Amino acid sequence: xxxxxxxxxRATLARTVTDVLQPRNALLAGMLGIGLAAAGDWTGLLWGxxxxxxxGLIPAGYxxxxxxxxxxxxxxxxxxxxxxxxxxxxxxxIGAGSLVMVLGNAPGGILVAMLALWVMTIGLLAVNTxxxxxxxSAVASAVVALLAVVHSPWWLAACALTVAVxxxxxxxxxxxxxxxxxxxxxxxxxxxxxxFG
Length: 197
Known about the structure:
mainly alpha, 76% helix
């Protein structure tokens, strides 16, 4: 097997990993799990879906809308100087979702998870003003860390998925190792915000 074939195979695998585990998908699965744990019954799935909608699906929709307008080439928005609007959309969307949760008497656990993600987004925005940081790695790490807190420490085994996301971002040339590690560390820190919520 030639080096070119091996490199192409790695790139294909990395593309699959980064597409399957992208933030909107990770947040959809994670927030459903967090909502279920927070409510203790099926109603938690509804709150979890609201969380996923506001934290992941609406921002992903915004990115796709901007792509359609020609603002960005793809969902990765590799130029960090063009990322600020995305962070503001995320902050506004999470804030609106959190307000609905407060008004709807959502279980405290899902609301605190939303606020933890809001704090993480502020951190990502702040870092992004001076240095490119991996949002995909941050979200993957945050979802695993939050699931470990609300469900079971056994969820920490899913850190392998965070490592896979970091690896894929580096292989595809979107980030350096340092940028993915910083993103993953910031994501894991959401558990601190959660613990004090």
